[in-house]
Design goal:
It holds the Pfam family SIKE. The longest helix has 77 residues. This protein is rod-shaped. α1 packs antiparallel against α2. The chain has a domain of 49 residues. It has 2 helices and no strands. The protein has 137 residues and is mainly alpha-helical. Helices cover 90% and strands 0% of the residues.
Length: 137
């Protein structure tokens, strides 16, 4: 009958999956906070650049504009990288969710199989005992 029990690892896997999902949620929140902070920095930077450009004549503004364009490209590249990381994390969360549901489904299948096997074993024992009673002494 010990062969009828589901594997002992499943509850442990459930806990690991739950922990991973929680960690992913925390990482996702952290990523969103970083994106918000970057947006705030960018808006302040743009505001300062605009004030600086308004305070100078056309010719004086060229070097400042060049630096501004270079910085904008660098920041845009960083924003793209953060968005890519977010997408990777979103996919990882989806994979974790899928894995969690697969484990839940497998556990349910094993529990059902276990119940059915126990019922069959019980029926088999009963019929064996009934058969012995019918035998002459």
């Amino acid at each position: 009958p010990s062969g009828l029990r589901p594997p002992v690892l499943l509850p442990q896997e459930n806990t690991q999956i739950r922990d991973l999902r929680q960690e992913n949620r925390e990482l996702w929140m952290s990523l969103e906070e970083h994106q918000d902070a970057l947006e705030l920095i960018m808006s302040k930077y743009r505001k300062q650049m605009l004030q600086l450009l308004q305070g100078r004549k056309g010719e004086d503004a060229k070097p400042v504009l060049t630096v501004h364009q270079a910085n904008s490209l660098e920041i845009a590249s960083q924003v793209d990288r953060i968005c890519e990381m977010g997408e990777v994390m979103r996919k990882a969360i989806q994979v974790d969710d899928d894995q969690f549901f697969k484990v839940q489904e497998k556990l349910a299948q094993l529990e059902l199989e276990n119940k059915e096997l126990r019922e069959l074993l019980s029926i088999s024992k009963e019929s064996f005992e009934v058969g012995r009673e019918d035998l002459p002494d």
